[in-house]
Amino acid sequence: MGTEKTAERPAAPSGEAAPPLLDDQLCFLLYTASRTVTARYRPLLDELNLTYPQYLVMLVLWERGPVSVRELGTALHLESSTLSPLLKRLEAAGLVRRERRTDDERSVSVTLTEAGLDLRERILAVPPVIGDAMGLTDEEFEAAGKLLRKLIANVSGSH
């Protein structure tokens, strides 16, 4: 499978394939890495009154400016049913504004408020802390990103 073996495989009855080991499953390693990194963000984002998914929404808005809910969902790979409560909480916190577009009543535009724009300066301290916690060299970080983007494209069928 392309992963380093970390444990001895249990013996299988004669003639049967041995069951896969959990630590040999790339999907489990990705799941564990995601949960571990996300947990590392938690105390940093708690200070800013943001959850990790809210942080991701804010990153898209800081990068792209006003976007439709649909564009936001596409960028974050989130369904509208997941995104709506996130946006509702960000709006209640005064960080974003949702408005129906005048040119298309079916579309809702998400815009940063002044408070949302101001929060960007405080967020700048977060990525270096996370980067340090990962303990990767610049080259390893770039290689990991490249491999993960390739994996996502291949598995999603968009390569």
TrEMBL record:
It comes from Streptomyces carminius. This is MarR family transcriptional regulator. The keyword DNA-binding applies. Residues 23-153 form the HTH marR-type domain. PROSITE patterns: HTH_MARR_2. It comes from the Bacteria. One of its GO terms (cellular component) is cytoplasm. It is found in: Cytoplasm. Keywords: Cytoplasm, DNA-binding, Transcription, Transcription regulation. One of its GO terms (molecular function) is DNA binding.
